[in-house]
Write a structure and sequence with these properties.
Chains A, B: Pfam families: TetR_C_46, TetR_N. 2 copies of one chain form a homodimer. With 242 residues, the first copy, chain A, is an all-alpha fold. Chain A has 12 helices and no strands. Chains A and B meet through helix 8, helix 9, helix 10, helix 11 and helix 12 of A and helix 8, helix 9, helix 10, helix 11 and helix 12 of B.
């Protein structure tokens, strides 16, 4: 399938919005696999097959403005990954969201690393705010599947902490040459959430109620049953502590 | 107790090292509670009771050099917090490390937030490297208490992910007016580690062996026994899934 921009015959002038989208797509492709300091407006013009002055006409603020616009577009794409119908076992829903998220991370590896690592010349309070918006959207979606809209402090902190852990694990995953495979990482991240829900429920009533609701929607022999089976021997080693 | 610098009579000249330490201490005090962009060299000179040219003489690179030197000094202090003898139940050792860490976070709240949030004007690849060094030191200490020096990929990722979660929880904690109290947060972070060790051990033999060793060093009625007791009812809700 060709993109609308490249399918447009050369003799038709692109509309302002089409041109903007074309430049953004070219920029996003470059920022995905290179740190922002290694992408020039010349590169973007070349990738889009247009002149440098034209790039400047659309992004008068230069590379920083283009970077922030590309980041905003990537943030929207990422937030789109989080949308998941509230059907079926919640752990399977989280697994599907993580599949899409890890595919995004895989496709934007260098750019994702440069953005999240910090210390990039392109980082500003605005880029930080965009990334924080994505984190908030992710937290809201997870809470939705837990059946909670306004979480208390413990449950709210738990969800936000897990999201930070997912981010950190993604960066480590890229660093380590994407080993283990995305499926194994996804399963571990789901079980990480289940473990965290468990220990938080052990000390917080709101989380305990959310976990009870979640367990009612899970299936026999599903993800939680499998984890519980494998946890048996581990927990057995703690019998002398009770 | 007065600091060595302020106890020095005015007529004695400070040595180069003493003067440097005095300026760094003054800078660290200011950077702890204000974002770096709100601290000027004038402020540092005033806090140290010296002239601005003298601050420049010691830190010719200006505020950025002073900020990085203060950060390096804070990083050393923080790494000092992680040192904990390998005696007694490992979960109690982790709790003591977290006590010292949370006290540090409490004492450097605004500076810690500005540094970790990213997007600060003072952030460079050098400041990022200093913070990464602290994370590495923290991971090594945790692994030491787990009796592991060269962890495999799953255990290594688990420990680094938990450290990221502790960082994220600290930032949320500062944001939320340091509620819940530091003791409650510490206990939850220890249980977070235990939960994460449990689910990771359920899928990774190296982690399972580390957990088995850890459980042998815990005490009846200690942190893990208490958690297991409170987890009982939560886990009971999953009986239909096995």
């Amino acid at each position: 399938m060709t993109s609308p921009a490249s399918a447009t015959p050369a003799y038709r002038r692109l509309s302002v919005e089409e041109r903007r989208a074309q430049l953004l797509a070219a920029a996003l492709g470059l920022f995905a696999h290179r740190p922002p300091e290694e992408v020039s407006l010349d590169d973007v013009a070349e990738a889009a097959g247009v002149s440098r002055p034209l790039v400047y006409r659309y992004f008068a603020g230069g590379k920083q403005q283009l970077y922030e616009a590309a980041l905003r577009s990537a943030a929207e794409e990422l937030e789109g990954c989080f949308a998941e119908p509230a059907d079926g076992p919640p752990t399977d829903r989280v697994a599907r969201v993580l599949d899409r998220y890890l595919r995004f991370v895989d496709q934007h590896d260098t750019g994702f690393t440069a953005l999240m690592r910090g210390g990039s010349v392109a980082e500003t309070s605005r880029t930080t705010a965009i990334v924080d918006g994505v984190r908030r959207a992710a937290a809201e979606q997870i809470l939705r599947h837990l059946g909670v809209t306004r979480p208390g402090p413990r449950l709210g902190m738990m969800v936000r902490t897990w999201i930070a852990a997912v981010e950190a694990a993604s960066l480590i995953w890229i660093d380590e040459g994407k080993r283990p495979g995305a499926d194994e990482l996804r399963d571990w991240l789901v079980e990480h959430l289940v473990g965290l829900l468990g220990v938080t429920a052990a000390g917080d009533e709101e989380t305990a109620r959310a976990v009870a609701r979640l367990l009612q929607q899970e299936q026999r022999g599903g993800r939680i049953g499998s984890l519980a089976g494998r946890l048996g021997p581990v927990v057995g080693g703690a019998a002398h502590l009770l």
